[in-house]
């Protein structure tokens, strides 16, 4: 199958590297021509979890004009860049599928504006990755991948889409701990909660994920953010229990050396996905009349910090 990965950030580059090493036909579609040219000229340097360095030949083009033909488009751009991609997604072949791997929530409404429901799939992962340059990515933590249809539970009675089935197979060959789930929205809510706990705190304190577990004060803040998010999720029909909290703690352990994507964006003066993460929980809390003071505090503090960093250049 032909796989096009839209986005040359840490997640897109890591996935492209692992699939290429497994023999899959992969093309990376970058937001800038400079990154595409550098990837084509120099290849992609992967730092593996075992400390090995591998230089991988990779095909790359910039996001100009129509997208190249593919069976599956992995949408790996940030939520903040999603609007740039939507017009070209509208033109893809109806037989193609799109796997959206954004953090946060709310992007399903945007995708439904340009794609048919049977084309839209979501991917939720807990892999740790860090991009060092346009052509260099480090795998910093092993995680899992879960894939599901936007149609959700209704898909249970239908045979698995052949494009998605093929992607699951090549993902397994590439060493991904990947599986298909019928309730992808439930998985997305749990990932949202993890991001809403880990990302803003690591960004505010500028620390790696594992450092959150080294302080009683940060652990208390984490738990308060979790409890508020749990109350909002519960009114959306999600059953959140103590195991969900333990999963967040385990993510911090598994990606202890990793800098969260939000912190990486801050340090590189890129827009933050705070609106789609903590901002989403705050907004839902207001609509459901649930107080989320700690979520709102870190949301506003993170926005303020990002603004100050931008002013300093």
The whole-angstrom Rg is 19 Å
Report the end-to-end length measured between terminal Cα atoms: 43 Å
Could you tell me the CATH topology label of the largest domain. Answer: Rossmann fold
Total tally of structural domains:
2
Shape: globular
Tally the helices.
11
Nutshell version of this structure?
The chain is an alpha/beta fold and 313 residues long. It has helices spanning 10-21, 33-42, 82-89, 107-114, 162-173, 184-205, 216-234, 242-254, 261-267, 278-287, 293-312; strands at 2-6, 25-30, 44-47, 53-56, 59-62, 72-75, 97-100, 120-125, 128-133, 136-141, 144-149, 177-180.
Give a written overview of the molecule.
This protein is of the alpha/beta class and 313 residues long. The chain has 2 domains: 2-182, NAD(P)-binding Rossmann-like Domain (Rossmann fold, 3-Layer(aba) Sandwich); 186-311, N-(1-d-carboxylethyl)-l-norvaline Dehydrogenase, domain 2. Helix content is 45%, strand content 19%. Strands 5-2-1-6-7-8-11-12 form an 8-stranded mixed sheet. The chain has a 4-stranded mixed sheet with strand order 4-3-10-9. Helix 3 links the parallel strand 6 and strand 7 (97-100). It is globular and about 45 Å long. Residues 183-301 form the Ketopantoate reductase C-terminal domain.
């Amino acid at each position: 199958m032909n796989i096009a990965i839209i986005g040359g950030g840490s997640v897109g580059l890591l996935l492209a590297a692992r699939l290429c090493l497994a023999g899959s036909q992969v093309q990376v579609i970058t937001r800038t021509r400079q990154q595409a040219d550098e990837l084509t000229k120099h290849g992609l340097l992967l730092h593996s979890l075992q400390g090995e360095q591998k230089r991988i030949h990779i095909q790359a083009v910039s996001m100009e004009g129509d997208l190249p033909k593919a069976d599956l488009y992995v949408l790996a751009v940030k939520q903040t860049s999603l609007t740039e991609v939507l017009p070209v997604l509208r033109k893809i072949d109806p037989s193609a599928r799109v796997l959206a791997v954004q953090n946060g929530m709310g992007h399903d409404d945007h995708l439904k504006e340009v794609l048919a429901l049977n084309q839209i799939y979501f991917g939720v992962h807990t892999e740790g990755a860090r991009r060092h340059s346009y052509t260099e990515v480090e795998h910093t933590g092993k995680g899992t991948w879960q894939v599901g249809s936007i149609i959700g539970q209704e898909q249970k009675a239908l045979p698995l889409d052949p494009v998605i089935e093929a992607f699951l197979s090549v993902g397994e060959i590439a060493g991904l701990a990947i599986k298909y789930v019928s309730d992808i929205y439930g998985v997305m809510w749990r990932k949202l909660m993890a991001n809403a706990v880990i990302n803003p705190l690591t960004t505010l304190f500028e620390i790696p994920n594992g450092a959150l577990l080294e302080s009683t004060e940060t652990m208390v803040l984490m738990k308060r953010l979790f409890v508020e998010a749990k109350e909002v999720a519960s009114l959306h029909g999600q059953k959140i229990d103590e195991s969900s909290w333990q999963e967040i703690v385990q993510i911090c352990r598994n990606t202890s050396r990793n800098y969260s994507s939000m912190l990486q964006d801050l340090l590189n003066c890129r827009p933050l996905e705070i609106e789609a993460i903590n901002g989403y929980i705050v907004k839902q809390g207001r609509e459901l009349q649930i107080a989320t003071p700690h979520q709102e505090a870190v949301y506003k503090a993170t926005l303020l910090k990002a603004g100050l960093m931008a002013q300093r250049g």
